[in-house]
Amino acid sequence: MNPRAADVSPLESLLAKFLLYGTWLASSVIAIGCGLLAIEARSATPDSTETLPLGCVTAGIALLILLPVVRVAIMLWFFLRARDYRLAIAAALVLSTIAAGVAIGIR
Amino acid sequence: MASGIFIVPLLTVFGHIEIHQAIGASIISVIACSCGSAATFLNTRYTNVRLAIVLEVATTLGALTGVLLAGIVPVPFLFFLFAIILFVSAQQMLAKRGDRISQSQDAGSSPWATRLRLHSSYPDSLLGGEAKYEVQRLPAGMVLMYGAGMISALLGIGSGVLKIPAMDTALRLPIKVSSGTSNFMIGVTAAASAGAYFVRGNIVSTLAGPVAVGSIVGAVLGARILMRVSNERLRVLFVVVLVALGVQMLLESVGIHLFKSTT
């Protein structure tokens, strides 16, 4: 069940660490923002201009969306370095499709 | 089993939240759950990252199509489609997925998969060593993945429910490899649509934030509870809940609201 550490390739190992810590970071930022929102909802005056808690939640969400995108960028870099151009093209295609989605969203 | 499939029905039917906002919130939770569990699958080497990046070309293109369709597709149709997906999930839960011991009904390894060096191996505890596998029918798998990506973007789900049959029937992967690889791909597929929904302003932070935190806590607690409950009971429970939610969504699609908003 437990493979030897040496069996896990450097790419897989890097991706595992990146995604694990990244998820913890992003979800902690969201959780802190949610906590601040809850405190604000109890105590603030109705016309409070405090936007920090909401900004915190939004930043956490943006971080979370960026995680898989950066993961593909890491893979692109690895495949380029390994001169594995076919898979590098696949990674580049995935990144450009995501970019196209964002461009469509902005429009 | 992904939790994403429960979020939209719960938010729309019981929370009376507009379906597009519910989809936006759900897709964020889907990313969190995929990325959060990816490390486990990667470290056990069940994830074929080479195959994943190739299939992601199709899933993200599907997601892009879904984003384009999301604004056009009428809301009742979204509810109807969701009901179908819930019923399909229930049916999959009923039919046990077994591991194929041998790949005797080989269609032969896909020449494309060979060219891209996608064949691999994983540590199998039953065989007590490395189990090699070959990726078959890659083009058919890509077409199915495109559909899965589109459904994922349209409904805000991970659509593992569609990815796993694609990997079982087209690519003929061992169950552990298809679970690990599918989980890995779900994050990128969801990020492709979430990115577009985010800049479009469809993701409401005050809803998506708490839902994401809730689903992460739920996933951690759920895994602990799952250990103590028998598999058979759990399966029956899941099937009942999936069918009940499916019926609800079907009723919503024809304009019947059993749980009316009291406010």
Describe the structure.
The complex is a heterodimer of chains A (107) and B (263). Chain A has 107 residues and is an all-alpha fold. Chain A has helices spanning 10-43, 52-81, 85-106. Chain A has one domain (11-106). In chain A, 80% of the residues lie in helices and 0% in strands. In chain A, 34% of the residues are buried. Mean pLDDT of chain A is 87; it is low at 1-6. Chain B has one domain. Helix content of chain B is 71%, strand content 4%. Chain B is built from 10 helices and 2 strands. In chain B, 53% of the residues are buried. Residues 100-104 of chain B have low confidence and may be disordered. At the A-B interface, helix 1, helix 2 and helix 3 of A face helix 2, helix 3, helix 8 and helix 9 of B.
| Uncertain residue segments of chain A | 1-6
**Residues in helices of chain B, as a percent range:** over 70%
Count up the helices of chain B. Answer: 10
How much of the sequence of chain A is in beta strands? under 5%
Distance between the termini of chain B: 34 Å
> Based on helices, strands and strand pairing, what is the structural class of chain B?
mainly alpha
Domain unit count of chain B: 1
Major pleated sheet of chain A:
none
**Proportion of helical residues of chain A:** over 70%
Q: What value does the average pLDDT of chain B take? A: 86
Described by strand count, sense and barrel closure, the largest sheet of chain B is: 2 strands, antiparallel
